Task: inverse folding
């Protein structure tokens, strides 16, 4: 199994269980993300703590998740980045676009803060 998907109170947690997020894994991740979004989930946390490598198709899957959440007026958070993947995110300047957390707890806090912000803006 390539992913572990867990529904929490505030978001869907997607854990990539592969060491490489590449052309072999990214298409099925994109499909999974679209299915999750299609079920009405607007907040997603993608945990890459088991990934040691990511290529352009992996980055594309990450951006799909970010876009799906944004379009649903939700929050996307990326967590569990190792040094190589973190470097790739920084080099491609996606660290300026994405919410990046160092732990699932921090990701939970980011989602909660965004939800509170949206609630206060809608009043």
Result:
């Amino acid at each position: 199994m390539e992913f572990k998907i867990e529904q929490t109170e505030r978001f869907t947690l997607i854990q990539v269980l592969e060491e490489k997020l590449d052309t072999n894994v990214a298409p099925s991740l994109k499909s999974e993300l679209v299915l999750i979004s299609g079920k009405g989930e607007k907040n997603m946390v993608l945990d890459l703590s088991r990934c040691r490598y990511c290529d352009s198709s992996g980055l594309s899957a990450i951006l799909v998740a970010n876009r799906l959440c944004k379009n649903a007026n939700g929050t996307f958070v990326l967590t569990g980045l190792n040094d190589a993947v973190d470097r790739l995110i920084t080099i491609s300047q996606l660290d300026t676009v994405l919410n990046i957390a160092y732990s699932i707890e921090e990701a939970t806090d980011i989602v909660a803060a965004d939800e509170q912000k949206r609630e206060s803006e809608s009043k």
The first strand starts at residue 3 and ends at 7. The chain has a mean pLDDT of 96. Residues 104-121 form the longest helix (18 residues). The beta strands are 3-7, 12-16, 20-21, 44-47, 53-54, 76-79, 99-101.
